[in-house]
Automatic annotation (TrEMBL), chains A, B, C, D:
<dbReference type="GO" id="GO:0005829">
    <property type="term" value="C:cytosol"/>
</dbReference>
<feature type="domain" description="Adenylosuccinate lyase C-terminal">
    <location>
        <begin position="352"/>
        <end position="432"/>
    </location>
</feature>
<dbReference type="GO" id="GO:0006189">
    <property type="term" value="P:'de novo' IMP biosynthetic process"/>
</dbReference>
<dbReference type="InterPro" id="IPR004769">
    <property type="entry name" value="Pur_lyase"/>
</dbReference>
<dbReference type="InterPro" id="IPR008948">
    <property type="entry name" value="L-Aspartase-like"/>
</dbReference>
<comment type="similarity">
    <text>Belongs to the lyase 1 family. Adenylosuccinate lyase subfamily.</text>
</comment>
<dbReference type="InterPro" id="IPR022761">
    <property type="entry name" value="Fumarate_lyase_N"/>
</dbReference>
<keyword id="KW-0658">Purine biosynthesis</keyword>
<dbReference type="GO" id="GO:0004018">
    <property type="term" value="F:N6-(1,2-dicarboxyethyl)AMP AMP-lyase (fumarate-forming) activity"/>
</dbReference>
<protein>
    <recommendedName>
        <fullName>Adenylosuccinate lyase</fullName>
        <ecNumber>4.3.2.2</ecNumber>
    </recommendedName>
</protein>
<dbReference type="Pfam" id="PF00206">
    <property type="entry name" value="Lyase_1"/>
</dbReference>
<comment type="pathway">
    <text>Purine metabolism; IMP biosynthesis via de novo pathway; 5-amino-1-(5-phospho-D-ribosyl)imidazole-4-carboxamide from 5-amino-1-(5-phospho-D-ribosyl)imidazole-4-carboxylate: step 2/2.</text>
</comment>
<dbReference type="GO" id="GO:0070626">
    <property type="term" value="F:(S)-2-(5-amino-1-(5-phospho-D-ribosyl)imidazole-4-carboxamido) succinate lyase (fumarate-forming) activity"/>
</dbReference>
<dbReference type="GO" id="GO:0044208">
    <property type="term" value="P:'de novo' AMP biosynthetic process"/>
</dbReference>
<dbReference type="Pfam" id="PF10397">
    <property type="entry name" value="ADSL_C"/>
</dbReference>
<dbReference type="InterPro" id="IPR000362">
    <property type="entry name" value="Fumarate_lyase_fam"/>
</dbReference>
<dbReference type="InterPro" id="IPR020557">
    <property type="entry name" value="Fumarate_lyase_CS"/>
</dbReference>
Length: 435, 435, 435, 435
């Protein structure tokens, strides 16, 4: 997590202040439940809430931790300083540090998920708007980077929309994966704490009780969560790469918005670099790098070891903050992307009419010419366009065999671009209707 | 995919024979639809089905491909050899190779998923059986590899059950991700083929039509699929590591079943190596290594490039075959795992009674002793056990301060193991009821 | 490892036949050393060599292993079938299976390295030849996919040469990493076998004795080896991506050689797809995926566990076979790459003269105009070219301020392409001289 | 990079202050060279050095960047504020931002390497000291977590020493990989800047000139660098796992030093958790996660794109800071590791004498008993020890067949531990002599 690629709301989720606040809430709710069970005095539970609006002194907690080398004990010690040792001694009773740490981590991940879901919604809105805008903006479809057949810019936006819609669903599932809490004590047996406490705390924190925990919440959940972030990041890369290609000097079918003050190469107007999408390509790699460590975290020893902890301290904030930033940046890029329909047409006409060769080939086959002969007929005219730069339609009309097989009108009809867009509405309906 | 770690049914899914069979089915169903639309003659569509029971000649297809360097064309040429050039010329009309290749890959992944789901079901059954069997088999719970508090072997099996149950749900979701087909032509516009063909083929092949495809089915789906396999593999590693720990010479709470003929170190009866679970640890790494390449595959150029293809030719079979083998091997290990309850008790008693120190501490706190003082009281007795090997209960009973604070009966009650198992039924109900 | 991406010589290294042959050699050399030490009878050692030219029966060994579940014992049993139980009983004395397995694996990796080094040499030769051929073939240099300043095609080949030269050095180092053998017995103490045996076997097999082994050769060596393959693969990807960009329809500065029989889109001459380099992009991902598992293999438990074994059975062959194939394919691509110098010039002139704006800017600064003013002067003329498609040189000559600052001759000189190539010889000397 | 796992000296290398200081030095040295070439006035070059001892105002630079969106221009603007616009206009002449950024990044990586090399040296010293101390401290060697044959604790330390020694060599090589600088202008052609400037700057900054750069220094160098850090991290994990195993309750052959104030489970003296080495296991994953992104960074588009930049802003500091911290922590762990030789002996005797079965087996074979019969003889006695807990030596002496074959003295000699340590000196000499 570095400031350059961070947004405050997500950063906030991972601040010490937020963390201690969640710790406090968990401990306080647990006390309420313990009091209800009669395990601890009601007054003590009530007293804990005195710290509700107190800002915890992070520096003080760090100071205590430097001695105790145990973060939860350090926090509890500080809490006792606030509410009094007398009341504080019932706090955390029957619990283990992991009860607090793991439940907190999941609360943070849930909140991060909510921000990310909102990010995706904003991106979806931008993609949909641009898809509608360019529904029939003709451009070349390309396979292998080579002109294939026409498509529309709207279809490009639409497929990114569909992909991000899937990512939204995946993230919703991933959010559910980690929306669990556990207050099950030392090795997860509830020996020292009643399951009621867990149920109460989870209900208050909007979590589901983890059906079976050890000292920790099982890490396959987190592996799935971070894997999902990795998939979303890969989709961001997918969109970014498309835009980078479109902005290439030789293609120039679109450009990232270039703000006024922005320098770089202002004396070279052709030199508007797709730096945002290049940056997104890199950010995707960063989010993705959390995936394998998260999976390596699954196999903890027996009821827990702490090897996952350092990994999560890093990838928890890093992956969510970076993804949040990347989604917002991408939304901005999509929103303001400058699209050049004229260049799309110009690119399409680079080899005069040649992109229609496939249709002519198909027409010949349908007209009863064998596949091999059809190839030959198309090929001999195509090669002239390729080598001499002449016009494909003109060549075909001048080719007696082709003319005989298809007739002029039929040949001309194969150069009609509407042919390629006739199912755009169908596809749009699939993608956007009843979404 | 290597024979040593392969099972025939899964290997079969990836054989050339199976692949060509699926190709054939897709082409034949597409012809039916095209005939229904009146695009191709009904007789031609019917004629294609003549190849229904013909075994395709893989060597012959390879031979043709060696010349054409295009696998689908090679297949179609071979098909024409079977059904006659005359009828064959309507096959594949309006389609692009990727329509066949991508839809086939997804059919294979769906079938692989079905085998894997069955594998998981078998594993779940084994885990459940062993969980029930050892529901109240007491063993030490360990955090950081260090004795913590008692738990039961049944809970260990139960948590693996819960984890694998989650994996089953994830795999079901992953299966849905890749259960789509696309017959959308060159760049996915349906310009040369009616969406009806796609709908028909998908219905016949038990797939959903891909709402919007380019020349390919979007690869975020496959990224998610392989990421899910990676998570499942990590859970296998998790279980394998637990068993490897249990089988350590110094722990010996369980052993992999050791067949009679099996050599290795038969003269060293203590030397029964957990080679199956060690192997599973390695296999988990192998499955996991498909995850990142699958994510790198998402960002194809424009409407497709073919960089994903070689990756999928490798990871498609490798990850599914390896995971299938690993799940079956793990099921076998769990099924036959030799559990040593006596050793579990013996291990627990290594430091005579010391594992109950936490309970005594808690009791002291509840009896009104300050947390600090409670620590001191417990600690001074614990240290004697630790250093001199005496018995913790006896020491506590001989400590006047402790005796004064708790009373003999109360102290003795803290050494009751039932205390730790009182919620086992609750947890089992959470895990196994209404599953 | 799949046939499609394999070459026989490398595949051979990993065949069962080769493996058993190496096993045999290690065992036989060990017997020689043991005989020399007087540990076993000389005749027995001599007798072992009777199997020197015998082809081992892989099926028979597999059959025995199916019972013993131990590959080395299966092999030794088969060896005994050949040379007689009587002589065979001294084979393998004092050794542990890993002595044979690990030393063999390293012999295979060394041989694989030698093939890969030869592959790189061939690639280097191709790159050097093409670099010399196009030393002064002018093309646009591009940053961010956007035209920057001119460079030459020769420099592009030269930088790939330099990169692959570094990879050659890295691979030489990686080869040394794994060119060790160990015959140190059970846990590496030489308790049951004299270090002389190790020294003798290693000398015969062209390996260095591992200074300190446990039951296994330490796996940090292999981690480094596979990491190096991953770097080489990434360089292949680097070159592949450059070619894919060059072959884009809109760029078309180079094309992969397109063989005569090759179909695909023969009727669309513009549709020559860079399928080889796209394939190389995918193969790079495949080689790279071995890196992390190889690193995860390092932390074996105590003196060894067998988790690394399954990983290496897969990545050993897969990564080397795939890399061998990829290097050879890339060499072929480079060798036959069709370069289009005319298109390079045409692309460069897309924005008539604008690429020289940087030089004009610099000239203005050097002529004493402030940086800000220089920008303004250049910018106002550049924008005309950009917006109206006029010629940059003409505009500058028509701009009184620019003319006043620089003079006509000076302005014209800024459009001289030789300016950009004046240090090409220097760079070539750095790269190719005394290599 | 998070404070908890950071040390100030390494953090410092990555501070904005350090970065701007290096930028300044590069620019200033470049001016010197340009002045020497007569390209810029000598006074201007001299004037730049006025900023030598000025502390750059990071906030001010950020402020400018917020407008210009270009970090190098922001810095140069700030520099101009210090030395005056008049002198400043010659700064950076002919250079491109990447000349500064890439050379700086490499200076930072070189400095980081130097710290890491010092870290490894400290670790090597600790490992050597402990190896010498425990050269003959007998402990069980274990394969598969199962007792195999005796070894010594010194050998364990020695093999970690040898492994880290290899890592030192690797890091030295990796340092050389990235110890290059480039001042080659826009696309690396030196069109706008003489190679002399690069030579001069590199000499001043202790770097080698990059033989051929584009706009950037080629990223295969950095891929190799980070891959090497990944290998080192994996070795750290290797050592950490060993210690975690040794500290297990049932094994307890060593413990991490437990400081006095440290809480956690002070009332449970058996509950000294190996939290440092568990932490190191996690940190290893974190360092390793930089490897793949660094490899993905290699394939930049044409002469550069900026996708690598965000990745390096993160992994540059993160991987080096984390590795520095981990090495220091590991050194501390090794230095203070509490070793329990008595427990090692006790563990070894768990199955009374059984670990010598291998030697007895060998003795029987050498005495002329067939391998099969030897197995049977050993096995029948071993099983008694295993099942009834009797003493292996006594059983063997009571077995007439064994006695007949070997004689009492010979049998007894097989239980001599010196047998296993007789080559310890040899191995130590290999590892430590002439190091």
């Amino acid at each position: 997590m570095i400031p350059r690629y961070s947004r405050p709301e997500m950063v906030n989720i991972w601040s010490p202040e937020t963390k201690f606040r969640i710790w406090f809430e968990i401990e306080a709710h647990a006390c309420d439940a313990q009091a209800e069970l009669g395990v601890i005095p009601t007054e003590s539970a009530a007293a804990v809430w005195k710290a509700k609006d107190v800002e915890f002194d992070v520096a003080r907690i760090d100071e205590i931790e430097a001695v105790t080398r145990h973060d939860v004990i350090a926090f509890l010690t500080h809490l006792a300083e606030i509410i009094g040792n007398d009341k504080a001694r019932f706090v955390h009773q029957g619990m283990t540090s992991s009860d607090v740490l793991d439940t907190t981590f999941n609360v943070q991940l849930v909140r991060a998920s909510d921000l990310l879901l909102a990010d995706i919604d904003a991106l979806l809105a931008a993609l949909e708007r641009r898809a509608m805008e360019h529904k029939f903006t003709i451009r070349m479809g390309r396979s292998h980077g080579i002109h294939a057949e026409p498509t529309t810019m709207g279809l490009t936006f639409a497929r990114f929309y569909a992909e991000m819609k899937r990512n939204r669903d995946r993230l919703t599932a991933a959010r559910a994966e980690i929306a669990t809490g556990a207050i099950s004590g030392a090795v997860g047996t509830f020996a020292n704490i009643d399951p009621f406490v867990e149920a109460h705390v989870c209900a208050q924190m909007d979590l589901q009780p983890e059906p079976i925990s050890t000292q920790v919440i099982p890490r396959d959940r987190h592996a799935m969560f971070f894997a999902t972030l990795g998939v979303i990041a890969s989709s961001i890369e997918n969109i970014a790469i498309e835009i980078r290609h479109m902005q290439r000097t030789e293609v120039l079918e679109a450009e990232e918005f270039f703000s006024k003050g922005q320098k770089g190469s202002s004396a070279m107007p052709h030199k508007r670099n797709p730096v945002l999408t290049e940056n997104l390509t890199g950010l995707a790699r960063l989010v993705r790098m959390a995936v394998i460590p998260a999976m390596e975290n699954v196999a903890l020893w027996h009821e827990r070891d702490i090897s996952h902890s350092s990994v999560e301290r890093m990838i928890g904030p890093d992956a969510t903050v970076t993804l949040d930033f990347a989604l917002a940046r991408l939304t901005n890029v999509i929103d303001k992307l400058v699209v050049y329909p004229d260049n799309m047409i110009a690119n399409m006409n680079k080899f005069r009419g040649l992109i229609h060769s496939q249709r002519v080939l198909l027409a010949l086959t349908q007209a009863g010419v064998s596949r091999e002969n059809s190839y030959t007929l198309v090929q001999r005219n195509a090669m002239k366009v390729w080598e001499k730069g002449c016009d494909f339609l003109e060549e075909l009309l001048a080719d007696d065999d082709v003319l005989a097989a298809l007739g002029e009108e039929n040949i001309r009809s194969k150069f009609d671009l509407d042919y390629h867009t006739k199912h755009v509405e169908t596809i749009f309906a699939r993608v956007f209707d009843g979404k």
